[in-house]
Design goal:
By secondary structure, the protein is an all-alpha fold. The protein folds into two domains: about 60 residues; about 100 residues. The longest helix is centred in the last third of the chain and has 69 residues. The two termini are about 15 Å apart.
Length: about 160
């Protein structure tokens, strides 16, 4: 909410500051303040939505398998390192690429689980294990892409800020 607060402050401060100089500066201050309010309001709402998505994804991750959790954690760490190393503003295409990589991870892992889980569980528990593996694979096929989509949205918003 810091962004929203800064926008509201600029919305009032800039025109008042401009009014002290001249009517022309007042209009310029009003324009600057309004732009700041709009920009910071959008950023604040976007960041709040990204935070909510992160909480939902963290809870959804508990429905998946240990391998996916570790793979997602490693992927997120790798993206954080890449982003921290880069200097300056990121382009829109870079933001899409980072977001896309998270989305691809979710879909790839979901599809892979449908194939691997039934055979893995069947080798340990026979027919009952096969059915458990099918269930786990189907849940993963639904949940992992949703997690990937949530991570993609969060990455996209984080990279634009």
């Amino acid at each position: 909410m810091t962004n929203v607060g800064n926008g509201v402050k600029d919305f009032f401060y800039e025109p008042i500051n401009g009014l002290m100089h001249s009517p022309r500066h007042f209009v310029e201050g009003l324009e600057i303040g309004t732009q700041s309010l709009a920009r910071n309001l959008v950023l604040g709402i976007s960041q709040s939505a990204a935070n909510v998505t992160e909480v939902v994804n963290s809870n959804l991750t508990s429905l998946t398998d240990r391998n996916f959790i570790e793979e997602r954690k490693a992927h997120r760490k790798m993206l954080a390192e890449i982003i921290n190393r880069s200097t300056g503003n990121r382009s829109l295409s870079e933001s899409f690429a980072y977001a896309g990589s998270s989305l691809v991870l979710g879909f790839k892992s979901g599809a892979k689980g449908i194939i691997e889980h039934p055979s893995h569980y069947a080798s340990r528990r026979g027919t009952v294990g096969f059915l458990q593996g099918m269930g786990q694979g189907l849940v993963g096929a639904i949940v992992k892409p949703v997690i990937g989509l949530g991570d993609a949205a969060g990455n996209f918003v984080s990279n634009l800020v």
